[in-house]
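Continued from yesterday's entry.
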Amino acid sequence: MKYRKLGKTNLKVSVIGVGTWQFGGEWGMDFTQKEVDAILDRAYEEGINLIDTAECYGDHLSESLIGDYLSRRTRDSWIVATKFGHLFSGRFEREQLWSPQEVLRQLDASLKALKTDYIDLYQFHSGTDEAFDQDDLWTLLDKQVQAGKIRHLGTSIGSNDNLHQTEASSRVGSAAIQVVYNRLDRKPEERVFPSCMAQDLGVLARVPLASGYLSGKYKPGTVFGETDVRHRHNQEETREKLEMVEEIRKTEVPEGMDMATWALAWCLKHPAVTTVIPGCKNPEQVSKNAQAAEFVTEEHHQDWR
């Protein structure tokens, strides 16, 4: 495993993290505590130290599964990132809750679910610019940092071209940006990444396998069943993505190299990107994700494409 400093924080994160939306049950699979333990134990064995979750992956369900695990392990071996701003109200349904009082309630609920005294990275979660531009919200969060409940603040931008929230990061005390970035969606390269680099913000690239399209498992013409999250995607866009993936496989992925491994390493070449946070359903996928670190060099990171 390789590690990078997350922007101007003192956090050294593994270049591969563990995304845990799936633990909330919305991916069509319910996880037992034993299954979560096996996934996180494998991550630890692979040198992964970053777990990314959220208050609304289930009603604090993902956090609770992680918290139970952490309560039986060494807490300071892990960098835990979670988020705020939503209330889970059903599968793929959320209520937006952004008042300072409500966010404080969410923070305390997250700390309780995670069975921890502090959160390493507490992220504004895909909210509107109006919700973001509440000075009293950031004042409240700064007080929680000073109280030791939060080590660092971050922003998970909903639109991967949200320059407003990215540009305001240093002003509000947010030290990291989480953003959708992958070989099929390079929008952040245009405006968001240059701003992150100028401010020395850490970058967590989410959906690095483009919701599994870049896993290499699916050929053009694949039809996803109703229990699959990709069934919700626009059919024409899905067809175009699968055709693009096939072209990338033929022209960009080295012969004999697993496409998912290549796709994760591809994201990590950009000098703005600190870490990628792919999801995983079992320990084997964790190990497969971790292999991408072998193809990451800091030379490529500094001198990108």
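--- second protein ---
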Amino acid sequence: MITISVCMIVKDEEPVIRRCLSCVKCFADEIIVIDTGSQDQTAAISREMGALVDTFAWNDDFAAARNSSFSRATKDYIFWLDADDVIDEVNQRKLCELKQHLDPSVDVVMMRYAMAHAKGATPIVFERERLLKRSCGFHWQGRIHETIATKGTILHSDITICHQKEVVNDPDRNLRIFQIMRQNDEPFSPRDWFYYARELNDHGQRAAAIQAYETFLSQEGWVEDQLQACYDLGVCHLRNNDREQALQAYLRSFSYEVPTSRICNAIGFWFLDVQCYAQAAYWFDQALRSTHRGGFENEDEHLFLPMLELAICYYYLKENELARAWFEAAKAQHPSHSLIIKNEPYFKREQG
């Protein structure tokens, strides 16, 4: 049986740290918490929960802080978490089983990461490198949105970690760090350009965001980021009332990968907005058919959303039987969803 070091970096996580650490006690052989400057009881609670707590002088570099936590690990494998991550009982049991039976030749175990940006929202699910063999010397890279370049034997598991953020302590932090990097003429990786663009976009700086997305797309980046950048570019252009540029941005994604559900839905909405219902229905149908997961997508984009929009398209095309069928299919996915409740009277009226 392998042994596991759980490694974390934290700052002012008093509301959630106990919840997080209670999720790992069943499989962790040691818990290492690196505090980057908490002013609350985060460190005291972590020690109370059995963690080894050390400090790291924060220098606007997440990779450096995570590498500091990894350097203190002593067990066979390292499992990283954020303080606002949660592992439910089902996935705790899966982790215990993995610990019991993992082939030591495995270097990296990928796990699902479910991120909900608001309570009750459908989470975005994607894979992250989560359990790493310590002897491989894996190293975090990137001051912001840090990542690890994986290598060796990789196992893809269905274990899911849920990211449940309660409070955003400093919503301007990431943009501020990027701006400092630019002021200091620090080189940007393609990944840096992508996330810099997203921060600009999130802060309403659309013109600068568009320029940063274009800079990213002119380089060799991860295909998941390229697809997301095309989608984000389309949204930026729509907010600028530049519909043609928005459509071109969506279509541009096809040069990187086969159509994803998110892009197909976006094109469907583009045609729906101009009441081209047959064209819109075509693209929502393509969203249902897409088997490719393009990075930051959620499950509703593959089933519920295109089903509901197909119902609406066929309603306006006066193909009532198809409209009702697609509405019932969407309703079966989320019977109490606000969009189902809002639209149901229209389809009941058609039945009447």
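The chain has three domains: 4-163, 170-257, 275-352. The two ends are 64 Å apart (CA to CA). Will compare against the first tomorrow.
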